[in-house]
Amino acid sequence: MPGGRGLFGSLTVVENLRLAAWLRHGERDAVATVRREALELMPRLGERLDVKAADLSGGEQQMLSLAMALATRPEVLCIDELSLGLAPTVVADLVEHVRAVHASGTTVVIVEQSVNVALLLAERAVFLEKGAVTFTGPTAELLERPDVLRSVFVGNADAARATRRDTAAPDAPSPAEEVRSRGVALECVGLTKRYGGVTAVDDVHLHLAPGTIVGIIGHNGAGKTTLLDCISGFTPIDGGSILLGGVDVSGLPPYRRAIAGLGRSFQEARLYPSLTVHETVAVALDQHLANRDPLAAALWLPVARDAEAAAAERADELLELLGLTRYRSHLTAELSTGTRRIVELACILAQDPAVVLLDEPSAGVAQRETEALGPLLRQVQQVTGCSLLIIEHDMALMSSLCDELVAMELGRIITRGAPADVLAHERVIASYLGTDEQVIHRSGTGAVAPPDQGAAPAAPTPF
Predict the structure, then answer these.
(1) What is the C-alpha to C-alpha distance for residues 134 and 148, in angstroms, rounded to an integer?
(2) Do residues 408 and 421 make contact, with C-beta atoms less than 8 angstroms apart?
(3) What is the DSSP string of 124-170?
(4) Are 205 and 188 a contacting pair, CB within 8 Å?
(5) Measured between alpha carbons, how far is 18 from 34 in angstroms, rounded to an integer?
(6) How many angstroms separate the CA atoms of 187 and 206, rounded?
(7) Rounded CA gap, 359 and 228, in Å?
């Protein structure tokens, strides 16, 4: 099961399942059997059979990818990031199913950043760092090794330069500065998006004040990513309006919204695979160059050299701020999922946005690195003055980071308010957090007991 890449995006759910049955073509009614087994495991897919895989939420794509892997009835099942982008109740369900698969005699090898998920599933753990094994043994012993679980690439943001240095001409305010000065960073009024008979975003009203951090939580398929796609312009809306700094940007294409001060990350980091980390961030600084004259660049005139030197210096500052200096000369294609996400964040900050939309920033990021991610994002917000709108399943991160939480269900907002109040809301617990005692959702620490073992030491919750 590849991490986030196990699907054919242009095919529907049912077509993907049909392809997954190919290795069982000699079996009678193989296609029907694969479909039945998949829907028994994940009933949510039954509601999305005719939807293209690329249009599914991140969690639904993960469910379909696992169903396709299991359709081959493997003797050895290799899973890359089981919990990536999934709600707590979904993770709990999948953990139980993987346990059942293992109990039937299948060997399971899982790559997982979440220590809690590893504790629930694995009997033995192997910890890798820079291609070398630094720990091997019973999974529960991982929690007794802080040297193993230390942060790897998220640097000390407090040690980074805190002053922002523009590469653009200083005589005129940037679009981001204009947005920050208007009192309301982002506002959605009656936002609606429909896919046929399904209303993915249903009359959403959202207000984001300058300098604030707002988190959006909800079950997979609740409409969270679709909401971000509508705000950033990648998905046209069917009703309502989107205001950036009080200006209606509903009809603008994504690049115009980016120029106006809106930054956006994706569930899978979208980078240039053949460029180094430094080159990638430098490209993101292009619109802020003091000189963008192609003739000056072609002739390598002093004004072009000065502009590119300033961009290179600013790129180095961003790499230092986010702890990426060691990866400066690495190709982005060579990086881990978590490191790619931090590089994507550097590219967003290079745009000098007034509002940043982050879709699952901790997905694929190691456990201790997730702990460092919260303070890092808060530091980024303070240094840049931007507002953050975050989709995230890590409740410990959201509780400590966000000024306000917004809970969504079936495309609608069901509650909003202080993180503690939202996480204690009955509908949030019932539809999203669940009541499984193995899913720890209300605090940053808690004990998780592996199957048939004693209670393990306290571990940060990945949900």
Answers:
(1) 7
(2) no
(3) EEEEEETTEEEEEEEGGGGGG-TTTSS-SS---GGGS--S---SS-T
(4) yes
(5) 8
(6) 6
(7) 8
Please, is 56 exposed, middle or buried when counting C-beta atoms within 10 Å of its C-beta (0-12, 13-18, 19+)?
A: buried
Q: What span, in angstroms and rounded, lies between the C-alpha atoms of 155 and 345?
A: 14
Helix (H) or strand (E) holding 325: none
Pairing verdict, β 124-129 and 213-218: unpaired
Q: Which DSSP letter does residue 327 get? A: G
How many whole angstroms separate alpha carbon 35 and alpha carbon 49?
10
Rounded to the nearest 5°, which phi and psi values hold at 225?
-70, -35
pLDDT reported for residue 254: 92
Burial class (CB in 10 A: 0-12, 13-18, 19+), 436: middle
pLDDT in tens, 303-359: 878 888 888 888 888 888 888 888 999 999 888 777 888 898 888 888 888 899 998
pTM of the model: 0.68
Task: Kindly report the length of the chain.
Answer: 463
- The rounded mean pLDDT for the chain is 79
Q: In whole angstroms, what is the distance from residue 192 CA to residue 184 CA? A: 21
